[in-house]
Amino acid sequence: MAKYLISFPSAAMIVPDGELEAVGRDARAVIEDAKAAGVYVFAGGIDEAVPPLLVCADGSFAEGGYPWAPSLDGGFTVLELRSREDAIAWAARIAKACRCQQELRVFGFDPQS
């Protein structure tokens, strides 16, 4: 089994007026289905009201992320699944619930984790 990241940036989620409540309900329903299926690992969204910190190896830090990288925002779901086909199916369900396309990535296997 592999862990898959299903995500979208904030700008991708354009919800028509009056549908935000339905989107939340539909997204929570998919997450509940993932929990019931035993494939749920984690889900959530980046709190964009809290700025990122760039932390150095010596413990010093500065507000802001990598200046050369695009900002990291949006919603994320991590599921542990048997196949890429299963991951695509779950990503499609999340895309339908959120009313936006989802990016699918697989985490590299780490036998120590």
UniProtKB/TrEMBL annotation:
Protein name: Transcription initiation protein
Species per Swiss-Prot/TrEMBL record: Pseudomonas knackmussii (strain DSM 6978 / CCUG 54928 / LMG 23759 / B13)
Upper taxonomic lineage: Bacteria, Pseudomonadati, Pseudomonadota, Gammaproteobacteria, Pseudomonadales
Domain of life of the native organism: Bacteria
InterPro entries per record: Dimeric_a/b-barrel (IPR011008)
